[in-house]
Amino acid sequence: MDQIWQDFLELMRSGVYGNMAEWVAAVGAVLALVFAALAVRASRKGNAHQAEQIRRLEQDDRERERREREAQARSVAIWYKEEQTNKGTRYRVYVSNVSTLPIANILISIHYGDMLRNVRETFIPSDPRFSSDSLDYVFNMIMEKGSESRNQYFDLSISFNDINGNRWMRKVNGELHPYPGQTERQRVARQWENRRVD
Question: CATH number for the 73-197 domain, one of 3.30.70, 2.30.30, 2.60.40, 2.60.120?
Answer without folding.
Answer: 2.60.40
